[in-house]
Amino acid sequence: MTPLLVTAAILIKNQKILVAQRKHSDELNGKWEFPGGKVEANENTKECLKRELYEEFGINTAINDYLGESIYDYGSKIIHLQAYFVSHISGDIQVRVHEQIRWVSLSELEGLDWAPADVSLVNQLRTYFQLK
Ligand SMILES: Nc1nc2c([nH]c(=O)n2[C@@H]2O[C@H](COP(=O)(O)OP(=O)(O)OP(=O)(O)O)[C@@H](O)[C@H]2O)c(=O)[nH]1
């Protein structure tokens, strides 16, 4: 099975990280994730992330450093997540596709019910900021 390439945004403001909860109707039923989505045929990962953040929240962003990746086998599909640090450039956040969003501190990340593929990214983020 070919892994699906999916991007994820680490958007930090006032030392809080933006996290988003998938809809309860969704396949990952209310799990928390870093916003982003599937890379389309005509774009690279950074272009994908900018597009997804505009579609999901109506915001313009700049895509910065690469954090890392997580490859997770859900059984029916394999997700290859690639995460980047992102800056919010303009536009007020409108929650268009998620159940809700939250701004959480690094230490609060661990208490959320994450999509399984994201657990490794959360750990990488904590390591990046040397919380482990
Ligand atoms: N965006 C995003 N997707 C994730 C994360 N973790 C994770 O397992 N996924 C999975 O990766 C896939 C990406 O789906 P998506 O629904 O966000 O992407 P999309 O907007 O391009 O999809 P669509 O066009 O089908 O609505 C889903 O299967 C989702 O369950 C994450 O942190 N962010």
TrEMBL record:
Give the Nudix hydrolase domain ranges: 1-126
Report whether Amino-acid biosynthesis shows up as a keyword of the record.
no
Catalysed reactions listed for this entry: 8-oxo-dGTP + H2O = 8-oxo-dGMP + diphosphate + H(+); 8-oxo-GTP + H2O = 8-oxo-GMP + diphosphate + H(+)
- Quote the InterPro entries the UniProt record gives: MutT-like (IPR047127), Nudix_hydrolase (IPR020476), NUDIX_hydrolase-like_dom_sf (IPR015797), NUDIX_hydrolase_CS (IPR020084), NUDIX_hydrolase_dom (IPR000086)
Keywords assigned by UniProt, alphabetized: DNA damage, DNA repair, DNA replication, Hydrolase, Magnesium, Metal-binding, Mutator protein
Required co-factor(s) are: Mg(2+)
What EC number(s) does its UniProt record assign?
3.6.1.55
Gene Ontology molecular functions: 8-oxo-7,8-dihydrodeoxyguanosine triphosphate pyrophosphatase activity; 8-oxo-7,8-dihydroguanosine triphosphate pyrophosphatase activity; 8-oxo-dGDP phosphatase activity; 8-oxo-GDP phosphatase activity; metal ion binding
Q: Which Gene3D superfamilies match?
A: Nucleoside Triphosphate Pyrophosphohydrolase
Biological process (GO) annotations held by this record are: DNA repair; DNA replication
Q: Which is a Pfam family this sequence falls into?
A: NUDIX
- Signal peptide positions are none
The record's comment on protein family reads: Belongs to the Nudix hydrolase family.
The protein's name is: 8-oxo-dGTP diphosphatase
Source species, please? Ancylomarina longa
Q: What is this organism's lineage?
A: Bacteria, Pseudomonadati, Bacteroidota, Bacteroidia, Marinilabiliales
